Amino acid sequence: MRWFGFGFNAFAQICVQEKSDKEESSSAVRVPTQLKNHVGRSKIRASWSRTASLFLDEDRRVRLAGFSASISGESLGPAVLDTRGCEDAVISETHLTLAFPDRIESWDLQSKDEAPSWRTEIVHRSQSSDVHLPLVPGGYVASEPPIFRPLPSHLQAKSLALGGGHAILLTAAGAVYTWGQGSHGQLGHGGLIPEEEPRTVEALWGMSMRSVAAGGWHSVCIGDGGDLYVWGWNESGQLGLPSRGLRKTSRQKSDLQAGGLCGSVGTCPAEDPHEEVFISIQAFPALVDVSPTCEIRTVSCGSRHTAAVTTTGCLYTWGWGEYGQLGHQTTASLDEPQCVEFFRNENLHVVDVVCGPWNTFAAAVEKEVLDLKNVPESPL
Amino acid sequence: MTERRTAFGSPAASLWSKISASLPPDEGQFPLQFSDKVPLSVVEMLKRARQELYGGGTTGAGRVLNAQVILDYSWERLNTGTWRHVDKEWRRVYSYGCLFKAAALCREAPSEEGIVQAIRTCDMGLLMGAAIMGNILQVIVCILQSEIRKLAKEEDDQDHVEAKKRKIASSHVGLIREELAVPRIKCPSLESFNANHLLPLKPVILEGIIDHWPALNKRPWRFVFSRSTRIQMNIVFLDEYLRSVAGCRTVPVEVGSRYTDEDWSQTLLTVNEFIDKYILNKGQVSENGHKAVGYLAQHQLFDQIPELKEDIRIPDYCCLGEGDEDDITVNAWFGPKGTVSPLHQDPQQNFLAQVVGSKYIRLYSPEDTEKLYPHESQLLHNTSQVEVENPDAERFPEFVKAAYLECVLKPGDVLFIPVKHWHYVRSLEVSFSVSFWWS
Lengths: 380, 439
What we know:
Low-confidence stretches of chain A: 69-79, 257-273
CATH architecture of the domain at 152-258 and 276-345 in chain A: 7 Propeller
RCC repeats (chain A): 174-225, 226-312, 313-366
Structural class of chain B: alpha+beta
Shape of chain A: globular
Largest interface: A-B, 37 and 36 residues
Helix content of chain A: under 10%
Protein name (chain A): RCC1 domain containing 1
Order of helices and strands of chain A: EEEEEEEEEEEEEEEEEEEHEEEEEHEE
Distance between the termini of chain B: 50 Å
Oligomer: heterodimer
Number of helices of chain B: 11
Structural class of chain A: mainly beta
Number of helices of chain A: 2
CATH class of the domain at 152-258 and 276-345 in chain A: Mainly Beta
Helix content of chain B: 25-40%
InterPro entries (chain A): RCC1/BLIP-II, RCC1_domain-containing, Reg_chr_condens
Distance between the termini of chain A: 12 Å
Low-confidence stretches of chain B: 1-9, 157-170, 222-236
CATH topology of the domain at 152-258 and 276-345 in chain A: Methylamine Dehydrogenase, Chain H
Largest sheet of chain B: 9 strands, mixed
Strand content of chain B: 15-25%
Strand order of the largest sheet of chain B: 2-3-14-11-16-9-8-6-7
């Protein structure tokens, strides 16, 4: 299995690029680039300035790439922190949380402390089934203090996704709960008000969901049948619905290229506003047709973009693309799902995708050696 | 864009030298101090941008890209949570991003379009950011604006704008019932205003107190209203004056009939775009059969464009309040005929000065608040649910029983709206008002 990264790379968290005189800066990787040193199975987690790799076939260490942690310039790595035996990890801009068989630790990446800022023991082996980061026994770990937040046990939480200011939770029964900021419809309850406590997304009542993901201001979930539901802010097309903001920016860009002044007041004669319906905020879940024939296997969200893998091994991306995080080798943003041709051209079958805020990481295997029995049932 | 030639070397170099003269002389004296709310990785990007500002290592495009990273990250923080709770540090970071981007755009022989883009960048920092380095964005935007005006002068030799005629259709006769009229008084003394109006919180229109404003006599804002021919003679159009002073500046505009409507929204336009689209109605696309109304409302235009501040004065009567002059909020209200501010109340005393055009205004006492059916939500608790000029008698039966005063505010009038007094405003023609909120 090979991991490929594309998008924001100002801290060399995807790859180290040669400094050249070219206009194109190294802060954006447009062509999907294979991550070095990833042999065998591994998990990837990404924050804005770093990538954490968990190598599953070795001694299960976590390696960090990207912005160096502490003020002295030394990187936070195996020398300071013993990560052997790690089973899962989540990383935010300020904290790295690691799950081991017997404990969970949350480390402040900005301090030189030799102890984690939060830690809990896993006493019973049965409890380890409760650990599916950021879910931990009794609650979950957040990106900033207070690290540990309790959750009522009656929810029977199966997985949890944390967005920019909101959370989306999937229960064992397949129900979806959301809470947090609601100003951009990201809670899916039909309004714009925040919720302090988990509240069920009633529009999905009766349908069983199998996976959830959260971006900066949007939420996504996959139904049991492989359908994709989205809600929240669509200012960059991250919902895959028509976005007015996108059309305006693309018109301004072509105005600039044509030599017109910024912000010229031309109206486009061909565009009739009555024909097209733009969606800026989708406050209730909406179904998105990613690919006409295929089921969605897994989905991940960046800050303002979304990436989905189909059961047939295609990677689709849409939303904000300014840093090349959509993988179509441009910096255009899209409000319609588009297949990342790179993998098809290289005869690669995508099996997983993980998004950082401004970049995307895709795991792929060669089509020729693809043996359906070896493809993991569920994504890592 | 034609070549610009002067006797004193390349103008592009002089623009950059003016800008860099406003910056600290070297990297060491350029402050980058932030609380620990700002992650070290972001501080790292800021340091890189600072290094590029003083060094020659990167290309112009590379510098712009680096600044853009800072802008994109802080923009996301500004849009997380409620605006009130956004940490001021993120607004500072955003301003730094604007500074680095504007500097990068002006570094190497910028075209006129490049300068306009830099102005827009500074404006975004002034609108959404927090003041940094002695409000350096304001300093830089002034440098850029005078550059644009220089270029405009070279392109356009016509200094004299001819007086133009514009017909007006509106008639204000019969609009106000005398027994309900807001009382008018000419140049009252401080003592009598205090005793008769401020302390008892009674609305009044003060006449003659802004006659000395340059906006009303010296500077070409004024519409000369000729009674005999009922044609407005503009010495210079208000909009042409604003274009020359502030045309490429970005301002917030409210679009939609009233802020309680579902399809009401806010957008950012340059003053040129706003005047073209919403004052002169060029290329207007009608939606639902009605022309969209755009209103440059409740904006601290005089802070953003200090030249305009010279045209107005703070009314002397504000000294009767307890606050400092610095605490007085001055807002501009500029829009076409038909802008509506729904019936609402404000937590401070208000002097509403009319400069150009006229407005119909209705006032209700806070004692009658229950008859005005304020919205229940916290966000709109200071706003009435009632459409004042078309009230729904079934939903709001008590409304007709509420006593009110009304007036047509015309150029030179200043309306005193006591604190918490409910007021409804509709413009009768192109209008420019200035409000002073004081305590």
